[in-house]
Amino acid sequence: MRCGAPSSVTRPEVGLDGVRLWWALCLLLALPAAALGLQPVALAQAVAQWPALPQALVLRPELGWHQPAWTWWTSAWLHGSTPHLLRNLAALVLLAALGGLLRPRAQAAAAWCLAWPLTQLGMLLEPALSSYVGLSGVLHAGVVALALPAVLPPLRHPTGAEPSPGLHPKWLAWALLSGVALKILMENPWQHTLVASSASAINVAPWAHLSGAAAGALATGMLRGVGWCARPHR
């Protein structure tokens, strides 16, 4: 006589929700940037000479805190040239593909989302800039937010069980983090406010890359801290 049979429980694929959130954030960055990039801003001109919409969206580090808070997000959608836009969109596609490979948890996507405005706030520490546009800082934040959790010890699930690690090839994560660190050191943001980039046809701000990487690490640490406080302690 059968007293019962184990129920069949369908579990969501490990990391699937995190990957979907990661891709959604990629689209949130890419689509407005592509639309606004149809008319790049003239970085050689004063901001007051720009069209009204870019003027309203751009972050102006020289103004400090005296500017609309929405520019902490919207300035990333503006670009100074078509090559500038295309290079950043290509990097964003690569970051989306890396998300599919590393299968980040939802926490990583949340960290990247939090790092987006933090990256722009870090640009206020470079008041020599009259304006800042582009995705590159947020992209650096995304690389760190994606790779850093893969090399850190996993937090316990609130039930007390270890979460499944998913597909986290640590060698790739270490390579990404090392590449970002080496790139920032070579750009030397402490010495150079702007560096001419023939590939992007603009002068790039190395500080944005440092600010993005730091924001990605900070946001990851903040959310891990929240997760550690929320887990049961014995």
Structural overview:
- By secondary structure, the protein is mainly alpha-helical.
- The chain has a domain at 16-40 and 102-157 and 169-234.
- Helices cover 55% and strands 3% of the residues.
- Strands 1-2 form a two-stranded antiparallel ribbon.
- The longest helix has 25 residues, at 206-230.
- Mean pLDDT is 87; it is low at 1-14 and 158-167.
Radius of gyration: 20 Å
Helix segment tally: 8
Helical amount? 40-55%
Tell the overall outline: globular
In what range is the share of β-strand residues?
under 5%
Round the mean pLDDT to the nearest integer and report it: 87
Q: Helix and strand string, N-terminal first?
A: HHHHHHHEEH
Largest sheet: number of strands, sense, barrel closure: 2 strands, antiparallel
> Runs with pLDDT <50, length 5+?
1-14, 158-167
Tell me the strand order in the biggest sheet: 1-2
Give the N-terminus to C-terminus distance in angstroms. 42 Å
- Care to count the β-strands? 2
Based on helices, strands and strand pairing, what is the structural class?
Answer: mainly alpha
